[in-house]
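Worked example

This section walks through a single chain of length 301. The input is the sequence exactly as stored; nothing has been trimmed or padded.
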Amino acid sequence: MSDVNEENLLGDYLRARRKLIQPDSVGLPVTGVRRVAGLRREEVAMLAGISSDYYLRLEQGRDRNPSGQVLEALARVLRLDQAATDYLLSLGTPRPRHRRRRPRRETVPAGIRQLLDVLGLPAFVEGRYFDVLAGNGLARALSPNLQIGHNRLREVFLDPAEQALYPDWDRATGRLVAGFRESVGTDTGDPRFVELVGELSLSSEQFRRLWARHDVQPREGMPTCIDHPQVGELTVSREKLAIGGAEGQMLVIYHAETGTSSAEKMALLASLATPPALAPATITEGGTSAATPAPPGAPAT
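Given that input, the structure is written out below as tokens.
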């Protein structure tokens, strides 16, 4: 957990990523018994065109501001995609030292809150640390944890009911942790981040394993399979849209392809989550009015 307290982010990242690269995948012969996982330090240095001593200083945190050219070379050796390369470059950017800060309050714009109420699709607002900041009733019908005060990471790793929603839980958690690391970036001094990562590292072996990989992935939408206890398995598209004027906040919307069984199940879920409409008032024998439930299929008035 050295990167939780911001001691050596760059070195931790380089060390974790080189352990994931097999020598034969970068054209190096494998002979005898290798005592380390992945690439050796001197192999990374050779492939990147830098000295072994300089690379050792990078991993040990004795040089935290290498040139962009060096970082780009290391990214190529470590076979990083664009998101991971951008993350590596950010780790090598000088940052001012700052004292431990108070948690930053994330406020959802009023217009987004109004949009949630009229959207007609399951939707919620996700904060920088994956806290649920706002959500509508359809989102809560999809998962009771999609409501204010819950955290996506904590629920997915620690709540068995939430885990059961995802048939491919291992893959889903991998994407979630990679997106979380990209969202946080180098801003690891916030007490909210320290508290959350500390709790999950102590409570979940799966989280510890994924966090140690240092995977980075953009927070973007993708198809998601959900096994819902009421309507069964359905595949939905989950869109993540950045909210202007609210740094780090995402509007997350679920929708299914029209005409599919998943769309039918989404409609059924919406009907189950919507209270029945009331029929027009009638006059009782005592002369008072009373509302009676509308028959199934009748239009609301």
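What to look for: The chain has two domains: 2-91, 110-273.
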